[in-house]
Amino acid sequence: MTPSAAVTLAGSTWGGGAWSQPLLGVRSPMKLETNELKFLLRLLGQPGYRGAMGKLALSGGKESASLREKACEKLASKGLVGCRSEVQVFAIAPPGQALLQVDLRQLPISVQDLKILQRCQGRTTPAQLTNVASTNRQAVIRSLEERGLVKVLKSTIREAWLTPEGAAFLREDCLPQGGAMVSLTLVGHYVRFLRQPETLSLAKSGSLAKPGSGAGGVSASSSVGAVEVLRAIAQLDAQHNTENYLPIYLLRQALPMTREALDQVLYELQRRELLELDMVREVSAYSPEQLAAGIPQAVGGALFFISLIQ
Prior knowledge:
With 310 residues, the chain is of the alpha+beta class. The chain folds into three domains: 6-80 and 163-195, no CATH class; 88-153, no CATH class; 226-308, Arc Repressor Mutant, subunit A (Orthogonal Bundle), CATH 1.10.10. It is 36% helix and 17% strand. The protein has helices at residues 34-44, 64-77, 94-99, 111-119, 137-146, 164-173, 184-195, 226-240, 248-254, 259-271, 288-291, and strands at residues 6-9, 12-15, 18-19, 50-52, 81-92, 150-162, 175-177, 246-247, 275-279, 303-308. Helix 1 crosses helix 7 (184-195).
């Protein structure tokens, strides 16, 4: 990495630690560091623009892991990437401590949650929750964190993916400049990305998976778009009587789309205010496989429920 690295956005250039003044009438520039750009280009080389953090190394040095996690966090805060993190260490929060002083018969939590709070009096790791299935520990901890009962002391990003906003940024706004060292492999990822039509069909891009079963299924030979997804949500909601609060795993089972493709369509429909996405709170009501169908978030629990805006 060199100090001369720069990325130009919307008529302004950042390099050497400072932005030049933006042109009149041009929107404010988005700051993007060299490592952030490298991280985005690494994602472009992954299937579906999604990959494990171990495959997104910025360099071979000892600091590579910390550098890529820092870059991922910054990009996530800007909405250019999404990521899934795992809790490594957590502890009970003051509200959780106060809850333990209440009459046990009046506690508004499950027996499992109570046992976890009683156990995590100090620094606790997920492996210490022996009374919870290993596949369900992260979801349980996140649920307690959302309610303010525990606090996460340390977490690690395991996976990252390019968001629709990130794709639009790379296609429309990103203009790298300067003398930063970027491998030709990364440049090749970017060139292939730019050569793809912006409205590339799901079938041509390989975004269609094997057809699912059940109501709302769509032929694998057709492109599944926003209209089909909305129709499937309405059909599944009526079939399963979920009262406009459809668990996302039902939609994944019904549509022949990869995880990444469906997530992008749902985010787009949310931006257009055609539906809302909500997090799961009662994780004990669902199996680990069902919970895994949620859309992981950088902060908080996964998005799990879908509601159409009438």
